[in-house]
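Much of our argument rests on the idea that a fold can be written as discrete symbols. Part of our work consisted of pairing the sequence of a single chain with a tokenised description of its backbone. No coordinates are needed to read the tokens, only the vocabulary itself. The record that follows shows the chain in one-letter code together with its fold in token form.
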Amino acid sequence: MINQGADGELSPSTDGNAAIGGRALKARLRRAERMRKVAAFGLVAPLLLFVIVSFALPIAGMLWRSVEDTEVSSVMPRTIAALKGWGGQDLPSEEVYRAAARDLAEARANGTASAAARRLNYDINGFRTLIMTAARKAPSADEADIRAAFVALDARWGERETWAAVKRASGPLTDFYLLAAVDLQHDASGSIVHVPEERAIYLDVLGRTFRISLTVTLLSLFMAFPVAYLMSTQPAKVANLLMILVLLPFWTSLLVRTAAWVVLLQNEGLVNRLLVWMGVIDAPIRLIYNSIGVHVAMTHVLLPFMILPLYSTMKAIKPHYMRAAISLGAPPAVAFVRVYLPQCLPGIAAGCLLVFILAIGYYITPALVGGAGDQMLSYFIAFYTTDSVNWGMASALGAVLLATTMVLYGVYSRLVGDGAIKMG
């Protein structure tokens, strides 16, 4: 009930009821908003969980394995503890050798020496034999001249580089794998230096990976642009038919498509025979197991990923923009470059980014149609994962590839963003 005074103003009791009602309404609105947010989160929670399990956690695990180093410290804990005070200028003290003798004897009894031997062999080739021999014939820790006994087993126990490698593997974290992934290493004094020329391969492989990916991206753009333009200007019936032809490769296995190019590009394959028949060449040329085969096969596989973003963007461009520019006196070529092409930039950017990111991680296609000098970084990641079981090196190469890709993506986004701002 509303109480009103003689002057027409609401009474204090009425103001209080209105305030209480307003607070209750706000509380109900906040509660409804919270329920809406909870419901929205519940809808996206399965997708978020899937992304975390299938994307975030594997990447986190990869990054962790690239810096984890616990094999040697778990097998030779006394040696690692004794080496903490060693500066690397001279040979370690007798106590380090005695600790190594105890650790190696215990590792042989427990059957764990191979883990430390495998890890140290990544650093210095031949270290596995050195550790396994010392584990079998380790001198007693009570010998008077323990250092001479170790040197008698193998002269390398009397070299600073051997003990420096053991200290570098002391863990629990290391930069050994990440440095090796960019052709760097620590020397005996702990300084970071370039690896010997005969072992410096990963920077060249990384450059080759980005060079092939960029070339394939440009080839895909050059071939996809007219196809997407044709599809966007055709009637719906013809455009749908062309779209089916573009999507047709997705119905075939990647392995089958790559193997088909092996058949087509070989010396007696269809491509060489056609070129000879047309008189372009006099004899078959090598088109497979080299960079030509890699570029052809990768471009064929990735071409649909460039066509689809371009077609989506071109389909939304109104044709009367070009007609208006031409009617105002612009030549067709100028109208295309000044009016039509800028509106295609979002599709070009999306297609190039998608194709480039897919290309840098390709493994099957270069492995099947490329030669030894055409393998990309993914080949070495697979080699260290499956053949040599060097998870640290495989993770480090993956981390380097991820980091360089993110840097290039940041530069790419900045350039595209600045271009969009200037165009606007």
Q: What stands out?
A: The mean pLDDT is 86. The CA atoms of residues 353 and 412 lie 9 Å apart. Residues 74-170 form one domain. The longest helix spans residues 12-65.
